[in-house]
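Structure in, sequence out. Go:
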């Protein structure tokens, strides 16, 4: 579509938050346009169809806290099948790779760590989560690895107050056709200008001027939903400057989680369904989901510094690491059985530079700072602004709806 010269509400970013803001405003009399830098909707939610006919969520894949997740109802309304199979975490590990006795000891250590961190958070004083690892515990490197999957970073960069604020009902489901596909379908009714990179938001005048790669437009109100890294590095600038927003974004950086997908050349040529993780006394490790949705494939997960090192090594490095690790656990014969289907590389995505946010120690309060409107004209949404569901697509969705409701409260329009 051509870029209009003026709009009532411009929404920067077409991920879950931007789409939710637009959908919440759709029955108002306000003109609304999403400005999306990519050629697609979904942001960090993106499903591809692999050559084997297996959907692969490069980004968000789990309906976390599914009993409180708005995307469950959205999925049901749009006819997306929900898989309620129990996730293959904690106890559901392949015995050969991670014997039960070892696994039980690890889980006990992991739970004790969380209990210590939770108790410390109740003091109200912030600190790095790594402070609450038990000195000398042999599982500490692996607990750190779990943090890279959960937070996208190692525990020394995680605020205990932020970690404690996260709410998880421990009910986790999946979308068979892909979470990213659901988010994109949710945005189908929205007016969107694709391939439109915003570089400057000038809020010095009566109307807000927005400079983009496709020209300039003005708006009465703006909703900013982009990942924190793009605000922190000033890929998008504000005039007058908003140093508090830039500082908040810098202290809510995106961690990194990447995924791989591998098919097998023969049906059912795997151990029983579940998770595959070696009892490794190290943090640089992947973890694997065997047969997601019952399909003959393996989904791999990598996080933190290890994921970044593999991305920096070039395309295909994540796949190669997956094959090496699986072969080391299950036997070298698996090298010739595994077929690469895809990998994500979110650190190298120019419109994200990472996966999802975490608060640095001492900065758990920055989520509220980032979320606060400016002059009732600039509104901020996205998973990083969610007080309790940050790092999730449903958290982003809720904040987009919240920002839109803030606009409606200031606009005498129905």
């Amino acid at each position: 579509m051509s870029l209009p010269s003026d709009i009532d509400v411009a929404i920067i970013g077409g991920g879950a938050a931007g789409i939710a803001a637009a959908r919440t405003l759709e029955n108002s009399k306000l003109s609304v346009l999403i400005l999306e830098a990519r050629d697609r909707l979904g942001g960090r939610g993106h499903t591809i169809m692999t050559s084997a006919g297996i959907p692969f969520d490069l980004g968000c894949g789990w309906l976390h806290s599914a009993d409180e997740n708005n995307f469950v109802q959205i999925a049901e309304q749009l006819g997306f099948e929900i898989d309620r199979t129990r996730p293959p975490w904690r106890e559901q590990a392949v015995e050969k790779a991670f014997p039960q006795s070892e696994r039980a000891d690890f889980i006990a250590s992991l739970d004790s760590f969380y209990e210590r961190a939770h108790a410390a958070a109740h003091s109200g004083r912030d600190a790095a989560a790594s402070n609450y690892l038990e000195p000398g515990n042999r599982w500490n490197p692996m607990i750190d690895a779990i943090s890279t999957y959960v937070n996208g970073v190692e525990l020394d960069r995680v605020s205990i107050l932020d970690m404690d604020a996260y709410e998880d009902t421990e009910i986790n489901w999946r979308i068979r056709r892909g979470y990213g596909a659901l988010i994109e379908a949710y945005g189908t009714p929205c007016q969107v200008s694709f391939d439109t990179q915003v570089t400057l938001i000038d809020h010095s005048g009566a109307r807000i001027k927005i400079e983009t790669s496709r020209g300039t437009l003005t708006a009465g109100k703006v909703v900013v939903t982009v990942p924190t890294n793009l605000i922190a590095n000033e890929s998008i600038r504000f005039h007058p400057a908003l140093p508090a927003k830039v500082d908040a974004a810098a202290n809510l950086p995106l961690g990194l989680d990447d995924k791989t997908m591998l098919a097998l050349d023969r049906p059912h040529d795997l151990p029983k369904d579940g998770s595959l993780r070696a009892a490794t006394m190290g943090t640089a490790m992947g973890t694997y989901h065997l047969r997601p949705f019952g399909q003959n494939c393996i989904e791999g997960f990598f996080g933190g510094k290890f994921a970044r090192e593999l991305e920096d090594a070039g395309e295909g490095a994540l796949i190669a690491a997956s094959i090496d690790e699986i072969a080391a656990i299950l036997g070298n014969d698996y090298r010739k059985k595994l077929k690469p289907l895809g990998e994500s590389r979110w650190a190298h995505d120019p419109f994200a530079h990472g996966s999802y946010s975490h608060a640095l120690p001492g900065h758990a309060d920055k989520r509220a700072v980032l979320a606060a409107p400016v002059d009732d004209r600039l509104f901020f949404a996205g998973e990083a602004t969610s007080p309790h569901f940050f790092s999730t697509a449903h958290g982003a969705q809720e904040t987009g709806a919240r920002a839109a409701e803030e606009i409606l409260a200031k606009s005498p329009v129905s």
